[in-house]
Design a protein that fits this description.
about 550 residues; alpha/beta; 13-stranded mixed sheet; 19 helices
Length: about 550
């Protein structure tokens, strides 16, 4: 092939940046084509601990079942996808993740998105770290925590410790059991998604670290080092399954939990923050195109180190944090799965103590707030710029007196119905609040507030058709929605109206036409999915 300028090669490869198949083919054209192809192929990585021996045994069993002349029972069935994979070299010799990372060392500094998964993948199955640990000790993962601890204390003799260490050392841990996640050679990350139980895979050192005397500080140390190494580029952080925000008030002199301080002071360019706790809230369905770790580990029990010790909160000496501090200006915030008290601490730190600046906040998602919580007090700080709002309709919003007309820039509103609190009055009140007239008492001309999208989510509830019909009927949803999309011909001069351009629900259109015939007949009601914008930035 004649020599081509590198700029031309890079531009050609950039045209295929969204096609994995084409990028793989282009990477094989020649050496000058490989770096740019890898730049797009590995713009986002998901690192998952592996049990290589278990993977080998798994595919050996698949190969044995695939060779059977006929299927005896359902357990002998092998899918077409598994049969295709059996032809791959990885089925015979799974590649250690460290070897893979070494082969793309020159590419890692260009990786923009990193997800650290806390579960182990074996074939198509995944297993949370705590269940894996219990299985090593001959325990079932579904035992209550106290029962596991009682058995654990009696079983952890020298034999079990040696067996545990041997099994632990056999795990292929992408970030290394000795060095920790902060040693990963990423220096240009824009997005970091991490489940706090990844620290269950990285036991605290027996003798501590240099300048760090308390082994319980190990998670905070790792996270701070990883974020600080990418401080200039990191603008999206998502931390799930976090066990903190439970004890001290945030303004306590002890500063018992400083996760928000750690993130804010280590990532000055942060724009998007997603925090998930240990509760088991309504977990939305993530599109298949976005690799997602199992949410089975979101349980009420605390996360464990391989030693059996509980994984601590982010507790780090403030002297270890950067001294110069300018509050990062958040544009996107999502809070999910914390207790009411914990949520209050987060809200207090962000909105009152100025750990983050919310003057530019446009996207807000809330799914766990205390009962009778004063939403309008919090919204008063952000309502001027808020364009996208997502709310779980659960027991915390049953008596919510929310005036959507006070959000002048609101473009998209998502109402996510919680299965436990599926009451028609909740949905009715929220939609009616959106449709309320706007009275202009200051003498200004009335305006029409244009909301581009209203999405009502019933996803994940598996409602039978008759139950859905009854629920939507009693909530008078059809009449309320029709009122939002059809502007009346005459209005008093002192009154403005909220108008919705498009309404979507995650039900098929034939069901919508049957259950909401008036609104569907206007052409404004369509089938649609919930836009979980807080999970993955658009640039990945």
């Amino acid at each position: 092939m004649p020599h081509l300028p590198q700029e031309l090669i890079d531009r050609l490869i950039d045209e295929f940046q969204d096609s994995v198949t084409d990028l793989k083919a282009l990477s094989l054209v020649g050496r000058p084509w490989l770096p740019r192809a890898r730049y797009h192929l590995f713009r986002s990585l998901v690192l998952i601990p592996q049990d290589l021996q278990a993977i080998h045994d798994h595919y050996a069993g698949l190969k044995r079942r695939a060779s059977l002349p006929y299927i005896i029972d359902r357990d002998d069935y092998v899918s077409l996808n598994d049969k295709d994979f059996l032809r791959s070299p990885l089925a015979e010799n799974p590649q250690p993740t460290q070897s893979f990372l070494s082969s793309i060392t020159n590419t890692l500094p260009h990786v923009r998105g990193l997800r650290l998964a806390s579960y182990v993948r074996i074939g198509r199955q995944v297993q949370p770290a705590t269940e894996y640990f219990h299985r090593w000790l001959g325990q079932r993962g579904d035992y209550p925590t106290s029962h596991c601890r009682d058995r654990q204390s009696s079983l952890l003799n020298d034999y079990f410790r040696e067996r545990q260490k041997a099994l632990w050392d056999a795990i292929d841990l992408p970030w290394g059991s000795g060095t920790g996640i902060h040693a990963l050679p990423f220096r240009n990350l824009r997005s970091l998604v991490i489940h706090w139980s990844v620290f269950s895979w990285t036991p605290p050192p027996e003798h501590g670290l240099v300048g760090l005397t308390n082994p319980n500080h190990w998670p905070g140390f790792q996270l701070a080092m990883l974020i600080q190494a990418n401080a200039d580029t990191l603008d999206h952080v998502s931390i799930r399954g976090y066990p903190g925000f439970r004890f001290k008030q945030y303004d306590s002199t002890l500063n018992e939990d400083i996760l928000l301080d750690l993130i804010a002071k280590s990532a000055p360019n942060l724009r998007s923050l997603s925090l998930g706790g240990l509760q088991d809230p309504y977990i939305p369905q993530i599109p298949a195109s976005e690799p997602e770790e199992s949410d089975d580990s979101l349980s009420g029990s605390r996360l464990l180190y391989p030693s059996g010790d509980e994984v601590p909160y982010a507790m780090l000496d403030n002297n270890s944090l950067p001294q110069t501090f300018t509050s990062p200006s958040l544009e996107c915030l999502f809070i999910q799965g914390f207790t009411s008290e914990s949520t209050i601490l987060i809200e207090d730190a962000i909105f009152n103590h100025g750990v983050f600046s919310v003057r530019s906040l446009s996207y807000l998602g809330l799914s766990s707030m205390p009962q009778n919580y004063d939403y309008m007090f919090m919204f008063s700080k952000v309502q001027g710029n808020l364009t996208h709002l997502s709310l779980d309709l659960n027991d915390t919003t049953c008596n919510l007196n929310l005036k959507f007309c006070s959000f002048p820039k609101l473009e998209s509103l998502q109402l996510l119905l919680h299965s436990t609190y599926l009451t028609w009055s909740n949905l009715h009140d929220m939609i009616e609040s959106l449709s309320e007239n706007v009275y202009h008492l200051d003498g200004s001309l009335p305006v029409v507030q244009e909301v581009k999208l209203l999405h009502v989510s019933l996803e994940g509830h598996s409602l039978p058709s008759m139950e859905s019909r009854s629920f939507l009927y009693h909530a008078s949803v059809d009449e309320l929605l029709e009122k939002l999309v059809c502007m009346p011909s005459e209005l008093p001069e002192s009154v403005g109206r909220t108008r919705v351009d498009k309404i979507t629900m995650d039900l098929s259109e034939n069901i919508l036409a049957d259950m909401l015939p008036i609104t569907y007949g206007t052409g404004h009601l369509k089938e649609g999915k919930t836009n979980y914008w807080w999970y993955k930035p658009a640039y990945l």
